[in-house]
Design a protein that fits this description.
alpha+beta, two-stranded antiparallel sheet, 7 helices, 14 strands, 24% helix
Length: 274
């Protein structure tokens, strides 16, 4: 969620217990302005918090030209001093899936060890120890959550002919009836597959707006909860796959955003819970 509207936005998702102390909110609004200026970001988003045993990781993201691709993640322990996370790579994400598990320690230098069999020069198998820092695990976790459960309303972002994704300045929000439909919300990440549209859907679709995957096609069905809160003035979506991810949208306005506050552990038992 945009750091400029942090106070207001946090109150809209506080029903799930996602909140910060007044000291933390004040520190964030001060420090994130400095982060935006020092790193020359177009704008700064407060992504959320990953709970650790020793310390919690507060996460922010800086955006430049492309709102979806050109993001840099930073972390802090006190909401004042911020440090850049390493850019996630396919290899890093794969290593995290194998080597790291359990709760985060809250120490970026903590190393996870994993033993695996690899071929040496003579093509003989040998056991090697793979080490992974928690800093890389945090970076990969933020990346995975963004890829799987980041949410935007349909029409909030457009894709230019050059392929750049930017905010749609003419977006005025979803109507009340549209806001209650899961199909009105899209994953804010690269599409996973080519959609097959019916003739009617092709006539109603807009390539500039409908370039993302809708939440209604997620499998398994039921991995999202959607309800109106605050006297039906706000629509709130919550992920059951990454518990702690909440998204809000005020129908009839361009206001929307999501935040994650949780352990950073994926709910792999979800298919058996539905």
């Amino acid at each position: 969620m945009d750091s400029a509207s942090l106070y207001y936005s946090l109150d809209l998702v506080s029903g799930a217990g996602l909140t910060l102390s007044s000291e933390q909110r004040t520190a964030l609004q001060t420090s994130l302005v400095i982060v935006q200026k020092n790193y020359r970001f177009k704008r700064v988003l407060f992504w959320g918090k990953i709970l650790g045993i020793k310390h919690d990781y507060f996460i922010a993201q800086g955006v430049t030209d492309d709102e979806m691709k050109d993001k840099k993640a930073l972390y802090s322990f006190d909401c004042m001093e911020w440090h850049l996370l390493p850019p996630p790579t396919e290899e890093m994400v794969a290593e995290v899936g194998v080597a790291a598990s359990g709760r985060f320690m809250g120490d970026p230098s903590h190393e996870y060890e994993h033993h695996e069999m690899r071929k040496n020069g003579d093509e003989a198998m040998e056991e090697v120890t793979v080490k992974l820092s928690e800093e890389k695990r945090v970076a990969a976790t933020v990346f995975n959550i963004d890829q799987e459960v980041s949410v935007v309303p349909r029409g909030a972002y457009i894709k230019s002919p050059h392929g750049t994704v930017q905010k749609n300045r003419s977006f005025e929000g979803l109507s009340f009836s549209e806001a209650g439909k899961l199909s009105s919300y899209l994953h804010f990440s690269e599409p996973k597959k080519q959609r097959k549209l019916s003739i009617m859907e092709m006539a109603e679709s807009d390539p500039c707006k409908d370039f993302l995957d809708p939440l209604s096609e997620d499998i398994p069905k039921g991995m999202w909860s959607i309800q109106f809160e605050r006297g039906s003035s706000a629509c709130v979506l919550r992920s059951l796959l990454w518990l702690g991810l909440s998204f809000y949208h005020i129908p009839g306005t361009p206001q929307h955003g999501y935040i994650y506050m949780g352990t950073g552990i994926k709910n792999l038992d979800l298919p058996f819970m539905l």
